[in-house]
Amino acid sequence: MQERGLDRAFQALSDSVRRAIIARLSTGPATVNELAEPFAITTQAVSRHIHVLEEAGLVTRSRDAQRRPVHLRAGALEELTSWIDRYRLIHEQRFRTLDTVLGELADTETTTHQNASKE
After folding, report:
1. Nearest CA to 58 among 49, 66, 67?
2. Three-state DSSP string of 41-102
3. Measured distance CA(19)–CA(73) in Å, rounded
4. What phi and psi, each to the nearest 5 degrees, are found at residue 9?
5. How many CA within 13 A on the CB side of residue 69?
6. Distance between CA 98 and CA 59 in Å, rounded?
7. pLDDT (tens digit per residue) in 40-88
8. Is the pTM of this model over 0.70?
9. How many CB atoms are closer than 10 A to CB 22?
10. How many alpha carbons lie under 13 Å from residue 34 in its C-beta half-sphere?
11. For a surface tag, which of 50, 72, 94, 117 has the fewest beta carbons within 10 Å of its beta carbon?
């Protein structure tokens, strides 16, 4: 996913209603009416949220006779997760290094205090 795609996806996910729609779609496709049920907003507002998610490449719509189910694009979420994981792994390594250094300092301090109390 390119930078612009990442920007659109993260911007789309900045809204709690859209995150809830994504969470619901993770269990399977749903129509706009089904997606609108838990919200105190109009189906038109839900349609606008779906449009934003579509533009961000996070969902797609298909036609099934009279129904137009919305589908989650799991691959797009995997791309976002991969992008996040790159930075998470870097920071986890830094924290492990910091933990090691702090552990060594604590060991040195303990040894210093033990030697001082023997004198």
Report:
1. 49
2. CCHHHHHHHHHHHHHCCCEEECCECCECCEEECHHHHHHHHHHHHHHHHHHHHHHHHHHHHH
3. 14
4. -65, -45
5. 11
6. 40
7. 999 999 999 999 999 999 999 998 788 899 999 999 999 999 888 888 7
8. yes
9. 18
10. 13
11. 117
